[in-house]
Design brief:
The complex is a heterodimer of chains A (about 450) and B (about 350). Chain A is α/β, with parallel strands linked by helices. Chain A has 12 helices and 22 strands. In chain A, strands 11-10-12-13-15-14-20 form a 7-stranded mixed beta sheet, with helices on both faces. In chain A, helix 7 (about 285-295) links the parallel strand 14 and strand 15. Chain B has one domain (about 5-335): 3-Layer(aba) Sandwich (Rossmann fold), CATH 3.40.50. Chain B contains 12 helices and 9 strands. Chain B has helices at about 5-10, 35-60, 75-80, 95-100, 105-115, 145-160, 180-190, 210-215, 240-255, 280-290, 295-305, 310-335, and strands spanning about 15, 25-30, 90, 165-170, 195-200, 205, 210, 230-235, 260-265. Chain B has a 5-stranded parallel beta sheet with strand order 3-4-5-9-8, sandwiched between helices. A two-stranded antiparallel ribbon of chain B has the order 1-2. In chain B, strands 6-7 form a two-stranded antiparallel ribbon. The two termini of chain B are about 35 Å apart. The chains are: A alpha/beta (about 450), B alpha/beta (about 350). The interface between A and B is large, with 68 and 77 residues.
Chain lengths: ~450, ~350
Amino acid sequence: MPIEVLMPALSPTMTEGKLARWLKREGEVVRAGDVIAEIETDKATMEVEAVDEGVMGRLLFAEGTEGIAVNTPIAVLVQNGEAIPQTARPATVAARPVPVVAAIAQPAATTQPAPPALERRPDRPPAEAAHGETATLTVREALRDAMAEEMRRDEHVFLMGEEVAEYQGAYKVSQGLLEEFGARRVIDTPITEHGFAGLGVGAAMAGLKPIVEFMTFNFAMQAMDQIINSAAKTHYMSGGQMTCPIVFRGPNGAAARVAAQHSQCYASWYAHCPGLIVIAPYSAADAKGLLKSAIRSQNPVIFLENEILYGQSFEVPTAADFTVPIGRAKLLRPGRDVTITAFSLMCRAALEAAAELATQGIEAEVIDLRTLRPLDVETIVESVKRTNRLVTVEEGWPYAGIGAEIAAQMMTHAFDYLDAPVIRVASADVPMPYAANLEKLVVPQPAYIVAAVKALLHRN
Amino acid sequence: MVRSAAAGIAAIATAKTKSRDKSKAGRIALPAASVLLGYYRDMLLIRRFEEKAGQMYGMGLIGGFCHLYIGQEAVVVGMQAALGAQDAVITGYRDHGHMLATGMEAPGVMAELTGRRGGYSKGKGGSMHMFSRAKNFYGGHGIVAAQVPLGTGIAFAQKYQEIAAVSVTYFGDGAANQGQVYESFNMAALWKLPVVYVIENNKYGMGTSVDRAAAGRELYRRGMAYGIPGHRVDGMDVLAVREAAGKAVEHARAGKGPVILEMETYRYRGHSMSDPAKYRSRDEVNKMRSERDPIDHLRELILGHRVASEAALKEIDRAVKEIVTEAAEFAQNSPEPDLSELYSDVLVDA
């Protein structure tokens, strides 16, 4: 049967081209892979290779013809001894309509489908459940206990990172884990963030549950490609076939006097990306309960800790089954006049600000976001419906930050309840300076939050 | 798919192969007829599949980037011959051949290329992002060299779980210059991970020749500083590949750590479909095609040693063509993903 050779598309955007030159003449034998023609587009000259074998029966366009639409027949191949079909040479290029390809009957979308709606899910777990007895633990101890409990529970869980084993952790978070679980499951890595992050992601795809510790999240920028392109996207790109249950954890944000390259909050960087869960706990109880939930999750989780909080003590439930649900914010302090959202160390600043405001007769409600993706928008909206005012606090830069996202969410979901614009208290929009006096101007202080709230309420 | 190397070795002849005398594998015991014909069929399937994919791209049925494997078929077929079902494979974006070699079905691969729901990733991954848990194929990765730490991690998991499996981690001569490759080499050697790194040196990283990109042409020696043994292999000879693969896989499986195999191969087509390939001459391509083609070579071997008749090979050609035709039809008839798929598979539901 004669085979039509079509004008090929040679790039994702090509719609037509010029037939520059024929390399096979009528009557010549054609083998698969032979170059039969050269075509020119606005970008390049390309060669057209034969896919089928036969004899060049007929060339349908003369060399130099311009504007031949993709998918227009340009030549006819015949098999040996076969008659050449008397296809009329098209008089003009436009004479042959371009066949419609890939037409699958589905309505063309005129609007983007909305993401799953913000609705109260009946199965939504409570933000706080009663867990009985508590013990006083530092955040550091709580994190260590969470890892140890999950490692006892699941043989697939292991910890890797720089100095996590023999050194007992750069910030002593993994103290004692090597002793209990051995070098097979508590693994010192070379200083090779991109490499060991990728290795962890591969191990997760292959069935393990890695906890990858970054000495600080500042160093995780070296591993960003593996975190986003490999960990976050693979479940979607594989149509749900592959999973990547991995936890990346370590201190995030400014410590003290370590300057620009070691003082950055990455919350909004990671929260930007679908496919990731981003957690940033404040209290030791939440650190423990959320880290346990993170390790049990089938998804890649970014777990942002804070160096200054490591030594802070909190009451932590002692129950063996204690976990905290991912995706639920927590009310730290009720109040009727204004809502303040914060996460991680900034919760402390927000609580101090609220205490100060209370002495001035202003009752601030403080919400610890705890999870930044998925964000518990519902809890913020419920609060704003009561207080009608919102101040967001974060250690990251304001531009395209978590506060900017919350402000946009409130425009969508709480516009009618707002009596004033949402105000952001965030890092000054500069790299972190080293000098102590300048540093203090960068990181949000309780006084800055107090000032922002009072400005919002027109109280001086 | 023929998987077992050992099962097939019943030397019926010793092949002194035409124009392969320089190759270290100049004298290799010929495998059984059924095995040789299996390799022929597997390589031909990849070739015909890719030609069809190129044609469908030209018709606008396949979008975006499409990197064809034509010319390199002996590498994956030879490597796969040394693997068992428990072994894992991971590669970069030029991945169609690897998928077919691991036994993934041609219709599912082609339907992914056309972005349809019958594709391996339900149409959401495309040419560069396909996976098969059942076949231990871990993708299909679009960022050059990102699969190298991932493949090393798969080997880590194999060792951690004490599975006697290896991770075959493919990358190209271009990827061989990425830093994460050496971060991976270091950890794999340090922890004696069962990984076989296969560098498919097809001479060009997109439009830049190896000579212009790599200090030191001997990519197989790039693991020397880490104590990783490396070998250069004639990647246009499926039997030479199989021989090298067998030894490398055995080494890794025995707990002796990683191995590097540099496959000297060649891609006939451009880097992607939209590559005019002006960085090399047509003569160079034609010379490789006419003198070094891996399928022609095996075909000559089969006929020369009377392993099978011309008619038997014709029958294989016909069967392969049928598979590819069916795959192309399936890929065009399978519907596009349902619109509800847009928001699914972002996260695993708790």
